[in-house]
Specification:
Length: 171
């Protein structure tokens, strides 16, 4: 990675004063739903808000969340790294989750994932600038398997032709 790109990524990652104000205001609103002595219970929605603001969980943002929820940065990091829905590095433009749990696997999801790897030119688990293709355990769509999500937009009853149409729209 070039030095310029690293600098740009770091600059993009930094919390701006506007980002910080939006985070503080959003968390203040979230905290109205929690007892004053249980602020840390708002960790999931607070981290989700940070990700909505920055696109991923930037380290200084996670520290800010911890401070606002009166907990340790380590605890916020534990939660941030436990759930697949949180990105601890900047994701590609399109996050593609393909369910390969048993019902989807029985209906061809693993072959579908291999097809997508070939079509996109990236391996599952690889985070690139454009695509972050991931194998996911369950997207709660067993009756309409196989399924996938692209940036949280759900797609069901997949076959190669349907996947091709969906991916064409991403170009």
């Amino acid at each position: 990675m070039s030095t310029t790109r690293v600098f740009m990524e770091m600059h993009h990652a930094a919390m701006t004063p506007d980002d910080t104000a939006r985070l503080e205001q959003g968390i203040a609103k979230i905290l109205t739903r929690y007892p004053n002595d249980q602020k840390r219970a708002a960790m999931l929605p607070a981290l989700r808000l940070l990700q909505e603001i920055k696109g991923w969980l930037v380290p200084d943002g996670v520290k800010k969340v911890a401070a606002l929820l009166e907990t340790t940065p380590e605890r916020a990091h534990e939660v941030a790294t436990f759930y697949i829905m949180f990105f601890n590095e900047k994701p590609g433009r399109y996050v593609i989750d393909v369910c390969t749990n048993l019902p989807c696997a029985l209906r061809g999801a693993e072959g579908m994932l291999k097809y997508m790897e070939t079509k996109l030119g990236t391996l599952a688990g690889t985070n690139g600038d454009k695509y972050y293709l991931r194998e996911t355990e369950c997207l709660a769509s067993c009756g309409t398997a196989p399924c996938m999500q692209i940036n949280e937009d759900h797609h069901e009853n997949l076959n190669k032709a349907k996947v091709d149409k969906i991916l064409e729209k991403l170009q």
